Every structure is written in C-alpha cells, then in structure tokens.
Amino acid sequence: MRAKLSVIVFFLAIAVCPARAETIYLNDGRVIKGKIINRSAYDVTIKEGVMPRKFFIDQILRIEQDEAPVNGAAGAIGAVDPSRLTGISAEKIALITEFIEASGIRQSMQANIERIITQSPAEKQAELRTAFDISGVVQQLVPIYDKYYSPEELREITAFYKTPAGQKMIAVTPKIMSEFLQASIDAIKQRSQP
C-alpha cells in the first residue's frame, strides 16, 4: 500500500511541479542560485552547476523563485517531430508544446528525470539519459493533449499561465505539493504506529 501511494504521489509531483531556477539566501549571507531538486521538512537540496548541495532549513533565510524557467522554452518546441504525429495539425502541435512549456510541465518532468538519473549508480546514468529523453516524453504527450483540448482552449490556458496569477500558480504549486507530500508521509507514519 505504501509503495503504491509513493508511486502515485511521485507521478503527481512530476505532472504539477514545475522546475524553475531559484535563489536561496542563507543566514550567513551567502546566496546560492540553481534549481531545487529535493525539498523536505528538514532540508533543501539545490543543484548548482553539476553538483547537488544540501542546506538545512535552519540555515536558510529565504528562497526566491526566479522569473525564467530552468531549461528555457527555446529549443523545446522544436524538439517535437511533427512528421511522427500523424493526424495532428502543425498549428495544434505548436499550441500543445507552447502549453507544455508555459505551464512548466516540461521543466518539471526534466527536473524529475534528472533527479532520478543523478540518484542512480554512475554506470547506469548514460543508459538512463538515453531512456528518459525529454523530447520523446513531450512527443508522447502531444496526442494525449490533442484528444482533450481544442486549439482555442489551449490558447486560453496558455494565456492564463503567462499572466501574473498563472505565474504565481506555477511558483507556489511545488510548495503546495511539498507540504502535501510531507503531510501525507506524516499521516502514513501515524497510522502505521501501533
């Protein structure tokens, strides 16, 4: 049961937690820029360059979300190969990929894939990088979004994500999910105690 819940929570986190660059201001005056790859009730792990660094909550003064998403949108839209998506117009493919970028879905998936790879044994990392190609994942998402959204709906949703309220939603959703995950873990621990 616990494993099943963990898998569900993991995929929810992939789907809704956008990865964005963040700035951590430490109590000792240092400023760290990078992307948060793990956040718990006790510590935060940030990837600064290629090496992850862990900071305990009592070391952190504040964390600020940078405006631009990590792994910016440029290039990602062109990564989808329209010739492999038969039956979907080029315009709709562009709308879907723009939505995937604007909503932070692609960046979130990329961050989670990177987290899985970096936590894997070194000898498996190259193989995993090939298996978890983000362009291929986005390619698989396009027909799914095509099935559920019209071009007009995609335009409206994407426009929302570009508003201040949409940007706030992207910024606070990881925090909400982090608190939810911690509350879920705490509730499971309480229920499993005799």
Major β-sheet, in short? 5 strands, antiparallel
Mean pLDDT: 77
Radius of gyration: 18 Å
How far apart lie the N and C ends? 17 Å
Question: Strand-and-helix sequence, N→C?
Answer: HEEEEEHHHHHH
Helix amount: 55-70%
Tell me the number of strands: 5
Give the strand line-up of the largest sheet. 4-3-2-1-5
Structural class: alpha+beta
Overall shape: it is globular
Beta percentage is 15-25%
Uncertain spans, ≥5 residues at pLDDT below 50? 1-20, 68-78
Number of helices: 7
Q: State the domain count.
A: 2
Give a structural overview.
The structure is a single chain. It is built from seven helices and five strands, in the order αβββββαααααα. The protein has helices at 2-16, 90-102, 105-118, 122-131, 134-148, 151-161, 164-192; strands at residues 20-26, 31-39, 43-48, 51-56, 60-69. The protein has a five-stranded antiparallel beta sheet, covered by helices on one side. It is globular, with a radius of gyration of 18 Å. The protein is an alpha+beta fold. Helix 1 (2-16) crosses helix 3. It folds into two domains: 20-70, SH3 type barrels (Roll), CATH 2.30.30.100; 71-192, no CATH class.
